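can u do me a favor
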């Protein structure tokens, strides 16, 4: 027999077996190289499609907040820096507003956030009304959240503040910072007495507000949190300033915290 010849390996001695170099040559034959090229092209296409999908998703998210794709990219960059450590999970408008590079830019983000918050509150209140109606229909003899001191007569309208060392929180309607403050207190598991200012003694208004703020009904039931009409208490304290207000009695005198 003639020795086997391979153009890559040359003549092979009899009974020598197949050399490693020949195997490599065989593995790199044109059909396999073509398959490798196809795989590379497939990976490239998938990468391009993934990038395109991500960019499309960012555009949708940006529009939802009234931002441009460039502003959304900046938000992502901001949250990768110190701001993301200080305030993880911060919404885009707040993050961009805090890190704004000019007064005009800061004002723009503030206005966008006011509009976004109003839309959010309107939607949540609309759903809450639907929820209340459903609850009243299914459980007509129960209330989702019971007020601690419901308005019952004009005699209670100038109620005096009484303290047992608990924190008192004064809030009002259409106050997003009030909701944020109450949610923060609940996250810290603090007990407090909530006073609803400007509710015109309407039990349903304070009840809806409490639900919107995510107040735990169990905490109200066991009086860890109490829900009360203000009944003039805030004016009587004469502490001034905007709401929300956290106050506590110290040495017989009420003070903002």
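np, heres the sequence
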């Amino acid at each position: 027999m003639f020795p086997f010849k391979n153009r890559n390996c040359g003549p092979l001695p009899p009974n020598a077996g197949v050399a490693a170099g020949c195997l490599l040559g065989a593995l790199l034959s044109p059909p396999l190289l073509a398959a490798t090229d196809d795989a590379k092209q497939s990976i490239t296409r998938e990468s391009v499609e993934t990038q395109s999908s991500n960019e499309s998703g960012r555009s949708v998210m940006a529009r939802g907040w009234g931002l441009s794709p460039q502003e959304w990219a900046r938000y992502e960059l901001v949250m990768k820096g110190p701001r993301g450590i200080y305030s993880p999970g911060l919404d885009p408008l707040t993050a961009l507003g805090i890190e704004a590079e000019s007064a005009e830019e800061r004002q723009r983000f503030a206005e966008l956030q006011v509009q976004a918050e109003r839309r959010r509150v309107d939607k949540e209140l609309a759903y809450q009304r639907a929820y209340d109606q459903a609850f009243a229909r299914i459980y007509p003899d129960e209330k989702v959240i019971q007020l601690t001191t419901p308005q019952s007569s004009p005699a209670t309208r100038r109620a005096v503040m009484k303290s047992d060392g608990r924190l008192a929180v004064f809030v009002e309607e259409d106050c997003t910072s009030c909701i944020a403050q109450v949610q923060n207190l609940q996250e810290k598991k603090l007990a407090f007495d909530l006073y609803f200012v400007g509710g015109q003694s309407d039990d349903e208004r304070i009840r809806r507000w409490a639900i919107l703020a995510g107040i735990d009904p169990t905490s109200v039931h066991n009086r860890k949190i109490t829900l009360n009409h203000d009944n003039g208490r805030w004016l009587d304290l004469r502490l001034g300033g905007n709401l929300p207000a956290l106050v506590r009695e110290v040495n017989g005198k009420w003070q903002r915290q």
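The longest helix spans residues 103-138. hope that helps!!
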